[in-house]
Amino acid sequence: MRILYCHCQYAQVVPKEVKAAVLQSLCDSGVAFDAVADLCEMSARKDPALKELASGCVKIAACFPRAVKGLFHQCGADLDPAQAEILNMRTLTAEEVTARLAAADVLPNVPVKAG
Questions:
Q1: What is the enclosing helix (H) or strand (E) of 102?
Q2: Which domain holds residue 13?
């Protein structure tokens, strides 16, 4: 399972203390993870790295699941709704995010259209 952390550098919509605590927890954990400065910026540049980041089972610490889904889709790097969990650092506490990142399971929550 891959872990992806977005620092939301440019939009600055995620509380600084949440970002800092989640990043520190990931660093302290010894678990391998990918950190990017800003998924929005990567998507705007159509960065091919997003395809690699979206492959397989992934947990993403960023912002709203619908926004993250759209960022990947814009680059042709759709997340697999059955294998991706997006943790919203705008609405969850750092403790809630780090607990889910550390959990062995994935709780898929990528929005899918009904019907």
A1: helix 94-102
A2: 8-102
Question: Which positions of the chain have pLDDT values less than 70?
Answer: 114-115
Which pLDDT does position 12 carry in this prediction? 79
- Quick check: is 58 in a domain? yes
CB 87 within 8 Å of CB 113: no
Q: At 69, list the tokens.
A: 């889904």
pLDDT, tens digit, for every residue of 38-49?
A: 999 999 999 999
One DSSP character per residue, 13-49 reads -S-HHHHHHHHHHHHHHT---EEES-HHHHHHTT-TH
For residue 20, give both structure tokens.
């800092």
Domain count, the chain: 1
